[in-house]
Structure formats: structure tokens, C-alpha cells
Amino acid sequence: MPLESHFGPVLYFRGADSTHWRVRALIGLSEEMQPPPVQIQSGVVPAKHLDTRLGLAIWCYDLEFPRLAEDHSAHYGIGEESWTVCIPGTESGLHLAFTACNGSETGNLDYPEENRNRLWNRLQDAHRVTAFHLLLQGGDQLYADPVWDRVPELARRVDGQKPDTKGPGVARETVSAIRDYYFERYVKLWSQHELAPLLASIPSLMMWDDHDIFDGWGSHPPEWQASEPYRSVYDGARRAFRIFQLGLAPEGEADPHHNGFFSKSLSHLGWVYRIGDVGLLAPDLRSTRTTSQVMSRSAWQGLEAALDHLNGCRTLILLSSVPLLNLDLTPVERLMVWFPRQQGYQDDLRDQWQSFAHRREWTRMMNQLFAYAKRNEARILVTSGEIHLGAFGRAHNERHLIHQLISSGIVHPPPPRAFASALSLLSLILRPSARGIRTRMQPIPGFGRRYLAERNWLELDLPANAGPRARWHAEESGISAWVELK
Length: 486
Fold this sequence. Notes:
By secondary structure, this protein is an alpha+beta fold.
């Protein structure tokens, strides 16, 4: 059925230099309507068409705002409406928000928005006080798990999460229904009353995780991953992810004029940007994931080239959708192998960087980051979600620190507090390590807990003349003390 006649705008960061701040604005209009131009201070910007589905055409605009020495407000107008964006000054710092896990496995877009989006309202309140320059969204922006029940052929061919691995390709009507499902869910998600004003005024940088596809993508048995039902769902999820989280056309290569992506062909969807001496980097941990690898050879090469591109940055923010530092549950994962019918737990454990299947890649990532810190005398900050808890950890070698900041979910409910307390105790014992690398989960300043069992989001402050700092905004406990990230 056709969707509402419009949605958006949603802003996507597209890079910055000493003179300009670049964003892409995405809107949806009824396919019968012609898109109006965008009016900015420097003139009029025409629309480019990205896709049309369910009677809704998706258009984008590439906008450039001038940068001054200090922060200033810039405006853009579409038709009779206008919005304000805070442009960071070249001599001031950056102010960022980080969110993850914007839903739940039941697909709770149908829940009352006021309760669902309580923390989005608080983020909006914080933005009014001190404007955010960027919104980092670190995975599971969309919980698409109900796809199995919403598409009839999938409901017949997938039992729980076990697919029909020997059947024929899915019907053309099913492919279309899958694409409709993801398209419609994103339009509804980005149109929610509490999210829409933020998405229209703070440029986002997003990276997906498994629920943006479906639970556990990449960590299921190879024969499941190769099945026709799984591949068709992945294709639909990827097309929608490109449109609604990256601001790209559903297929094709990256736009050469705004190419912040590792891969020109977009075989994987990692991105990298530089703002003065701050580097922003997000590897794609889902597109090429299998039970035996987190990233393909090509994706690793892209990551290493991205790190080289950021040489000279004194602060590196790595968005890792799955936490790079957490407690080491390898003993539990090995035990699960002996218990049938525990697939749900097994793929959750296999998702982790600390999985025994991925330990070599975890060590490789840690060594890459420590090497970057050494050659650039840089601070390394890792932002992650995924675990539905807030947490803070550090890794160190002889000279340098890596700070792990975990914040999730802004919507997903937390696990019981007893579970978080148990993790806190286990984290004192089960610490991932490698030669010359030691890790430790630490209490969140002001909260006194290693794992925060409340809905939460993260604030990052990067002043121009001081070290970065972070604090957690929790649903019940309020705002944590600042943690200095030196």
C-alpha cells in the first residue's frame, strides 16, 4: 500500500575541510510530486533522484555550508519549511552524540512513541542546550527481525531462524515484498515525531549491525547464510540500508564527489572522514562476515588504507558496531558447541570480537590501532553498542591506551540488573588479552557500575584545546560524570 505523501529531511555527513561543511539531505515525496529545490545561503540546490517504491520517491540534495572560525548556525529550506544546522568552527571543537539499538526484536515501531522514544526526547533537550555537530548511529538503527513473519513465502520456508537450504530461488513477488518491507519500516522509523527533528538538524554517520538485516546475520552456519531465503532478505536489507542509513542509491558505485567509503564498488560499506585533526572511521562488520571471519581481505585492506588516510589526526574515533573491548566469553562459547538447540546463544557469542573464531582478527585490529596511536601520538576512542548496556573499558600496551565507550540501547530495553552485576564480576576474571595487550572494564564515573542496565546514549565532547571526554545519559540514573579520555 502507498506510504504517507512525504518524509524527511534526514541529514548525512559528507565531509569537511577548512572552508566547508558538507551534508546530504534526503526526503521522500509522493511520486506524482516534483521535488522543490533547497534554498541555502549560497543559492539553490537541485534534487537528485535515488529510488521510488510504494508510491514514494526518494530525493537527495548535496549541501555545502561555509565554516567560520567559531560555531555558527546555518539554515536550509525545502519548500515552505526550514531547518537549522550547527556548523563547527575551524578553531572550536566537536560535539557528538552516539546512539545504538533503536528498537527491539519484536519490531516495536508500533509501540507508543512517547515511551519508546523517551531518550530521543532527552537527546533533543540536550541539543537545544549545546548543539551537536554530528550524530553517530552505531548499529541496529532498525530492528527488521519480523521480516520472517511479514512475508508469506519466508514464513513458509524459515522455521525459527532455520531456512530451507535446498529449495528454489524465492519468487519475484517475494523479492518485491522483502524490499517493500524494509523500505516501509525505514520511512516509518525516520518519520517518528521524536526522531524527525534531530535527523533534520544533526548530520548522521551510521553503520549497520545484524538487526538492520536480521538477528545474527553472518554468524549463522554457512549453509544457512547461502540459502535463497537468507540471501534475498540480505539483498533487500542492504538496498534499504544504502538509501536510509548512508544516503545512497540502492545499487551502484559510490558517488565520486562524496566518496568517504572504503570501497568504490561498495562491496563493503565502511566509511572514513577527517575533520581537522579528528579522524572518524567505521568498518563494515556485517557485509563480509562469516562464522570464521569478521571482515574479508578486501575489507581489511580498506580499513588499513583508511587508517593511512587519517595519519596526522591526534584523535581517532572508531565506530565498531560490536564492542572491541568487553569481557571474554570464549569459555562459554566453547561450552555451547556441545549443546544442540542453542543456536540463538551461539550466534550471539560468535558475533563478538572476542569469539575464539575471531581472536586473530581481534588481535590484528588492536595492533593496528596501537600502531596508529604510536605513529601519530593519537588518542584512540572506540564507540560501540550491541550489548544493550552502557560500559567503559580500556586496553593498554607499553605506551598507549584504547578507550572503549559502549552505549546501548537508546530504545532497546536493558537486561535485568542482576545480569549486569554478574557481568561486572565476570569482567574482573574474563579479560581478553594478547601478547603485550591488557584490557580492563572500569566503573562508569559517577555511576560506580561497570555495566549500566538502563537505556542510555553517549555524549562526546572534543574541545579544541583540551583532551576529549565522554559521559552517559541514562534513563533512570541521569547523567554520569565526565570521563577524561587522555
